[in-house]
Amino acid sequence: MAAEQEEKEFYEHRASEEWLKVLEPLGTDKHKEFLEKAPWLIVVFLKKFTFDKQGKRHKNYYTSESVGISCGFLLCALHKAGLATLTHTPSPMKFLNKLLERPKEERAYMIIVAGYPEKNATVPVIAKKPLNKIAKFRE
Questions:
Q1: 71 closest CA partner among 21, 79, 132
Q2: Lower Cβ count inside 10 Å, N or C end of the chain?
Q3: What is the distance between the alpha carbons of residues 81 and 67, in angstroms, rounded to a whole number?
Q4: Residue 85: closest CA among 62, 117, 53, 56
Q5: Superfamily of domain 37-134
């Protein structure tokens, strides 16, 4: 699969030692079997600009914000439907345009892997910062 080839390139050639060290506690590596096992892979694209009938280019504003919010709603809906999800962002993602025959003005934003979890599936315990370290409240 094309995504697995990109992962192999990333882990073997593009990722810095620092980045690999950060990924280590997650237990992630170039092997992404879930891409072949999951019943649904939802590839989300954003469109930075559009062309009018005369071929003039027009910028679309707040695409990252809008697509991010939309993905959040979709992830929540999938969770409420009883599905497990995983966001996957291979680097780079340009191969998805060719693979899925998308126009060059679109850019892949993320892959949402969705399906029912396997019986013995586990989730890594990831330490989270306490609320007072990430937010300030004012009266």
A1: 79
A2: C
A3: 21
A4: 117
A5: NADH Oxidase (3.40.109.10)
